[in-house]
Design goal:
GO terms for molecular function: glycosyltransferase activity. With about 425 residues, the protein is an alpha/beta fold. Helix content is about 45%, strand content about 15%. The two termini are about 25 Å apart.
């Protein structure tokens, strides 16, 4: 198949949506497909263009056999809601030259659009209509719902406009998929889809990300002792997680020299966390850059406790992508989730982590105490088993390809049903 992928994030980004889209593109090429991508300069989660791409305009490169068309875009240093909207729109308009070229070029067999940003679905929708090509719209975050429920956008008229644009895209997509059962249900509740959305979860390469002994971890490199109790957060440092709780918990343990809090990553919320550490004069918190993929198993083996935190209002609007790697590494995850959400149900029913109330310092400290006190080996074993059974990269992507091939073979009938 000739496949076009449209996503603001792509490899070589190490975390977030770009990581998964990059792995998907490379996997499809290895199956013999022709894959091209329209994307931005890599910038996430640092919110700064990676050094190798600075100063470049529109250009094309090849990554793992995938032809990648890069676009410049506006990247704010402080990603407030208005600046983030401008950032996303700048990519949409910057990608227009590639879409014009694509419109008059050889037709693709399928277009895959990855959201967020949700509005980037507009160009693929128009291409799908004009060239009669199936559109697969995959949703990693329910962005408009989140912006509304978190109060990030106060103007109701503007929120309604965003929902109208989302509805336009969803109604005209051949396939809509998302990453959790809860998000599938929320899409169903919108009552705009012509056919049920598909579950297409994030995956993990469980053969590469696996449990390692403490001797193979990064403790020695980081100056940590084997007897230290290490509490790790790794990933994007944004607004939806409520990560200030980590610093408040670290303050509680400031008198214990054996309890260490490690934060790996970057993002718009990092400066605030660093400021809190400075204000409290904490010596048990350290900040580090994201590690290359080759060192991920070693990093995960460093921790006694893995923090997977998010705010109550983000429940079932996102499913933390970091969780897949934690599970594959047999880590003990401390997860903040609201009862009734997919995240809470999956963790609880499979007994593969400790659940705590979101946005509560007391609950976080109580969870940490429980891990430090109790035998949690069965959580680790259950986590690894779940990853191998349900999150296998090869299995999930094989199912995805099967659906793509079905779309291609039936595209005439599908197009008629869309019309």
């Amino acid at each position: 198949m000739r496949i076009l992928v449209y996503d603001i994030n792509y490899a070589p980004e190490l975390t977030g949506v770009g990581k998964y889209t990059g792995e998907m593109g490379a996997w499809l090429v290895r199956q013999g497909h022709n894959v091209q991508v329209i994307t931005a300069m890599p910038y996430y989660p640092e919110w700064e263009v990676h050094n190798r791409y600075k100063g470049k305009g529109w250009f094309t490169e090849t990554i793992d056999g995938v032809v990648v068309h890069r676009c410049p875009l506006y990247i704010p240093k402080n990603a407030t809601t208005p600046k983030r909207i401008l950032h996303e729109l700048s990519f949409v308009f910057s990608s227009l030259p590639y879409w014009i070229s694509t419109l008059f070029g050889k037709r693709y067999d399928a277009v895959i659009c990855i959201s967020p940003p949700f509005q980037i679905g507009l160009f693929p929708t128009m291409y799908s209509i004009l060239r009669k090509v199936p559109l697969w719209y995959h949703i990693q975050d329910l962005q408009v719902d989140m912006a509304s429920e978190l109060g990030m956008i106060k103007n109701k008229t503007f929120v309604d406009l965003l929902f109208s644009i989302e509805k336009f895209i969803l109604k005209r997509s051949t396939v809509v998929s998302t990453i959790s059962e809860g998000m599938v249900q929320k899409l169903t509740d919108k009552k705009v889809l012509k056919k049920p959305s598909l579950l297409f979860p994030n995956w993990v390469d469980e053969q590469f990300i696996k449990p390692l002994p403490i001797e193979a971890s990064l403790r020695s490199e980081l100056g940590l002792r084997n007897q230290d109790k290490v509490i790790l957060y790794s990933g994007s440092i944004g607004e939806k997680q409520g990560l200030e709780l980590i610093i408040e918990a670290a303050k509680h343990y400031s008198a214990r020299s054996d309890v260490k809090f490690l934060i790996f990553g970057s993002g718009g919320g990092k400066a605030r966390l660093e400021s809190l550490v400075s204000t409290y004069q904490l010596t048990n918190v350290s900040f580090h850059p994201l590690q290359p993929y080759e060192k991920l198993s070693a990093l995960l083996a460093t921790a006694d406790i893995h923090l997977v935190l998010q705010k109550k209002s983000a429940s079932d609007l996102v499913l933390p992508s970091k969780l897949t790697s934690i599970l594959a590494a047999g880590g003990c995850a401390l997860v903040s989730a609201v009862p009734g959400t997919t995240l809470h149900y999956v963790i609880d029913s499979n007994q593969m982590g400790i659940l705590i109330e979101p946005e509560s310092v007391e609950a976080l400290i109580a969870g940490i105490e429980r891990v430090l006190r109790d035998d949690i080996s069965f959580y680790r074993q259950n986590a690894r088993s779940y990853a191998r059974q349900y999150l296998s990269k090869e299995g999930i992507l094989q199912q995805f390809e099967d659906e793509l091939l079905r779309l291609s073979s039936e595209k005439r009938d599908i197009w008629e049903s869309v019309l």
